[in-house]
Amino acid sequence: MQLGLTATPRRDENIDTYNYFGAPVYVYSLKEGINDGYLTPFRVKQISTTLDQYTFTPGDKVIAGAIDPEHTYTEEEFNRRIVIRSREVARTRIFMEQMNSMEKTLVFCQSQEHALEIRDIINRLKTIPDPNYCHRVTADDGDIGDRWLLAFQDNEKAVPVILTTSEKLSTGVDALNIRNIVLLRQITSMIEFKQIIGRGTRLFDGKDYFTVYDFVKAHEHFLDPEWDGEPIPPDVPGIPTPPDRKGGKPQPDDPDGDPETPRPEKIRVELAPGREMEIDYMMTTTFWGPNGKQMTAAEFLKYLFGELPNFYKDEDDLRKIWSDPLTRIELLTRLANHGLSSDDLEKIQDLISATESDLYDVLAFVSFNAPPKTRSERATTASQKMALQFSDRARRFIEFVLEQYVAEGVEELRPDRLAPLLELRFGNVNEGLDEIGFTPDQAGDAFRSFQKHLYAETA
């Protein structure tokens, strides 16, 4: 018996293969793989910038090529006909600020040249000193690139963390721990889109999902009926390749056209001083279920972690429990005993882009779809509300505690943190108590009572 497997079952984009082999006898879809626990689901951060189009502006400098001052250059022309390095620096900075700096990441670029430029920008912006933090892997990199790819695939090796590529890594890369896929070039082929998404679906310990950073509206492929669709029936003869799609075969790694045809010099533009800092962006985070349908964040979280145990009746009840550090610890313990640890809650924080929020906000969001507040916002409100409750000396210490809470999180509000915080602020616990004018019992009562102001309902 001979068995053949393919990851591209759509016959309208790989006609030759299916004409030769015939229809598949069994189909196993992406959604089935995710539902059965063999593949990971994902979220998409859709990012648009104020320089997704460009029209020449007086003050900008053309340093190569001939620009058409009346023409508006769009996404499909960037890094093919026109290069604006400041734009690439801005886009790279955006996704690097969003990601965990040590998560394995693939960045898909417009061409090999573009992949080289993005590699250099990443290595200039990185905060990790290792010189092998980011490498390019394209056809031109040959054996050296292949060696970096093998190191990237090795889960025992921390570096390289990021690989930039053009076409080469869209298929055949079996790296289990890829947490991020960055799309800096348009993807016109549904097959290629499926293949690229497939790079992130491998299972790995502690990997509940992966993230796609989409700068080029590639997420619109999810709305295409062909996304994860069934194969076209085998009795449909001679289906032509749709004119708006590439064929199923791999495209050249540098898709700039026929190498025998002379190409015009690329236009290179240097933005006027200060304009790079004016590049702004808007980001929308969406969540996609195994059937290719968009889910709410709460639905996605329930898909990953299941239903939250019913330990509180409503948001007011949760607020009451969370406002007292003793009942808060009891709730966290009960959640952990039911399979939702503090580490899991922190994962959810990252998933809903609420790492600056309190764990209370995570629970309120998942349970009641309440919009998260930042710890800084909560601390500011609490500071205003407790102005009349404490003396100036005590209030100054509590404001110090709030600073620690904003920086480190709700763990700083545990009762056993009072003594270390007094020591951190005053150098000695007893001197601290004398300074704020409290006995140990009074300090403990104040430490617990001020916390209700952090979680009080606001208009």
Explain what you see:
With 459 residues, the chain is α/β, with parallel strands linked by helices. The chain is built from 17 helices and 13 strands. The strands form 3 sheets. Strands 7-8-6-9-10-1-12-13 form an 8-stranded mixed beta sheet, sandwiched between helices. A 3-stranded mixed beta sheet has the order 3-11-5. β12 (281-288) and β13 (294-295) form a beta hairpin. α8 (315-323) packs antiparallel against α11 (359-368) and α14 (418-426) crosses α15. It starts with 14 loop residues before the first helix and ends with a helix.
* β-strand amount: 5-15%
Q: How does the major sheet shape up?
A: 8 strands, mixed
Any idea what the CATH superfamily of the largest domain is called? Answer: P-loop containing nucleotide triphosphate hydrolases
Uncertain parts: 230-259
Number of strands: 13
So how many helices? 17
- With strands numbered from the N-terminus, the spatial order across the biggest sheet is 7-8-6-9-10-1-12-13
Q: Supply the CATH class of the largest domain.
A: Alpha Beta
Question: Taking all residues together, what is the mean pLDDT?
Answer: 84
